[in-house]
Amino acid sequence: MSEQSPPLPQTSALDPVTQAFPRLTRAQIDRMRPLGSIRSVSPGDILFEVGDTGISMFVMLSGKMEIVQPDQTGERPVAKHGAGEFTGEINMISGRRSLVRGRVTEAGEFLDISPQNVRTLIAKDAELSEVFMRAFILRRLALITEGFGDAVLLGSRHSAGTLRLREFLGRNGHPYHDVDLDTDGQAQELLDRFNVSVSEIPVLIYRGTMALRNPTLQQVADCLGFNNPVDESQVRDVIVVGAGPSGLRRRFTPLRKVSACW
To answer: Given strand 36-41, what is the order of strands in its sheet?
Structure first.
């Protein structure tokens, strides 16, 4: 199938939507080709599913796809991608589970780039690093703002436990839907569905199937897969917690392996 040259953006490069969903130039795509493989796709192909890990980033050389999030009523549309655009958000870097489903809507050819090679591009190509990281961060912020998460938090603003979980989810940048039992008139339906009593709040409902009653932070982290990317088989000499720009400026003696957490 012949490739289509990506059309030029019709909006300002400073527009937030343009920055979250930029179109790559032919030169940028050519620099990515050695680290990817061409994949022919057909309408209806599911390229990644909610809960998947280690998913590739796909660059549309031709064809189209849509990003949706399944819910109890069907699917919520999240985004659409066309020629020259690419998939992925901050999970591409963190290695956490996918929050969305990616489905092909128009046949074409996609450039399939593994997560490891995406990280290689970000580390070695300053221009692409800026494009990818800006888009990934803005897309995650949009998921948080619109509540496109896989969890529902049932609680009260007067509950210390609820505030603790809200802060934890916020610090970890995890999208979720917040249901305030003090003001939400439909909250009782959720409580009844999962046989939850008011004494058990806060409650975290995961993917509409699992209810964690007054959970610990460790239980929440395990449920949402926050710790899954940690490879315990790897030996590390140093772990840097809070790896901001100022925290990594000092020179260290070369080590076998260093991990950074933020």
So the answer is: 36-41, 108-113, 57-60
Distance separating alpha carbons of residues 138 and 140, to the nearest angstrom: 5
Q: Where are the domains of the chain?
A: 16-146, 151-224, 234-262
Residues 144, 260: Cα–Cα separation, whole Å: 24
Burial class (CB in 10 A: 0-12, 13-18, 19+), 72: exposed
**Region of residue 66 (left: phi > 0; alpha: psi -120 to 50; beta: else):** beta
Class assignment of domain 16-146? mainly beta
pLDDT for 200 equals 86
CA dist 178 → 72, 138, 154, 161, 219 (Å): 16, 21, 7, 14, 18
- Tell which residue, 60, 57, 65, has the closest CA to residue 114: 57
The domain 151-224 belongs to what CATH superfamily? Answer: Glutaredoxin (3.40.30.10)
Nearest to 18 by CA among 33, 5, 28, 7: 7
* Cβ atoms of residues 237 and 256 within 8 Å: yes
pLDDT at 256: 46
Which ranges of the chain does DSSP label H, i.e. alpha helix?
16-20, 26-32, 91-94, 115-124, 126-146, 160-171, 187-193, 217-224
DSSP state at residue 172: T
For 119, residues 6+ apart whose C-beta sits below 8 A from its C-beta are 93
Question: What pTM, to 2 d.p., does this model score?
Answer: 0.73
Rounded average pLDDT over 217-245? 71
Name the pLDDT band for 244 (thresholds 50, 70, 90). Answer: low
